Amino acid sequence: MFTAPVTAFIELLISNVYQFTCLRHVNSNIGTKHPEYINCCIIQNKKKIEQNKKDIKYAKIKNIDKNLVARLELDKLKLSSITKTIIEITKLKDPIGVILDKWKRPNGLKIKKISIPIGVIGVIYESRPNVTVDLSCLCFKSGNSVILKGGSEAFFTNKIFVKLFRKSLKANKVNMNYVQFIERKDRKVVSSLLKDMRNYIDVMIPRGGKNLVKKVKELCNVPVIGHLEGICHTFIDKKVNTKMARNVVLNAKMRNVSICGATETLLIHKDCPKKEINLILNELKNNNCLIYADNKVRKIFSGKLKKATNKDWRKEYLDTKISVKIVKNVNEAVQHINKFGTMHTDSIITNNSVNANYFVRNVKSSIVMHNTSTQFADGGELGFGGEVGISTNKLPPRGPVGLNQLVSFKYHVAGNGQIRK
Length: 421
Known about the structure:
Distance between the termini: 54 Å
Strand content: 15-25%
Number of strands: 16
Number of helices: 15
Strand order of the largest sheet: 10-9-11-8-7-12-13
Radius of gyration: 24 Å
Helix content: 40-55%
C-alpha cells in the first residue's frame, strides 16, 4: 500500500494525464517555434548554472561516481549545445499526420498508413540535464505528452529546465501539463510509475546506468525503449589507413569516456603490423588509458599491460580503461562482438570493402559503422535533431530514438460502399 501523500500525487498525475488526450493534436506551429523557451535558454544561463551548482554540491557530498558528476555538470559550452539542439528540433518537419505508405486494392479500397503520436511517454533518468530538454522538446514536437522523473542528483537543474518549458507552453496558450516533472525524490513514486500506471502511460523510457534500466525492464508493465549497456567495439582490420586507425581509436575511446557510445573493447586483426599496434596502444597509454590485454597483445606490445580475463570482454567501463584482443579475421571479430556486445554500436576500420560489407551485414548491433568513431552513436550527430535514447531492442524503434521514432501509425481505409463476400 502507498502512503497518503504518494496516493494523492498519483491521483493528481492521472487527472493531468486525462487532459493530455485533448492536447495530442496541438497546433504543430507551436511545436515548431518554441520562441519563449529558446529565449529563456539563452538569457537565463546564469540562473541555470546556479541551480546546477546545488546539484554538483549534493553529488559530491553523496560521493556519486565521478563519471555521473561529469554528465551532470553544466557550463556555458554545454548550455550552448543544449540551445543549439532546441533550435535544430524546432526546424524539423512535423512527424504527425504523415502518409507513410498508400496503396489501392483490386476491389477499389484505398489504404493509407498515417503517423500518429504514441500518447503519454514516461521517462526515468539519471544525471544528464540535457535529457530533460531533449525529451521535453522531442515529445512535444511529436504530439506526445511526457512525464519526467529525473534523478535526485540533478533535481534542481531538471526542475528549472522544466519550469522554463512550461512557461513557454503557457505563453503559447497550451496546457502546461503537456510536460510534467515529478518534483519528488520518493522512490515509491518510481515504483508506482512502473507498476501502477499501465492505463495512463503508453511507453516508458529509462535513461541511466545498468541497474536503473534493468529495474525498469523487470518491473514495468508497459513497453520499454532503451538499452542496458553500451559495450561498443572497434575492430582494426589488417588493411587500414594507419593514421586514420590511430585517430579513430583514440577518439572512440577517449573523447568522452562516460557516454554509452565510447569504445570499450578494441579488436585487432592478427596480421596488423606490430609497429602499428604499438603506436595505437602507446597513444592510448599516453592519454592515461588503462589497457587490459590478452596474452597475444601483451607479447606484441613493448610496454606493460594489465592481463585481460573473460570478464573484461563484458565490461562497460565508462572510464579511461579499455580491453584489447587479437582476432584471426573479420569472422572472429563479428563472433566476438555478437557474443560479448550489447547490440549498441560497433565499428570496423578497414580498406577492404568485402570485409566491411561482411561486418556491417553480420554484426547484430543497432548501429554499425565503417571507418569512423563509435562516439557518433548519437541522435544529434546522425541528423535526428536530438534523441530520447539509443534502443537496442530487436523490434523498432531501434538505434537513436529521435523525433520520427516517437510516433506510431494507423491505417485509414476508404471505400465507396464495398462489402466483404
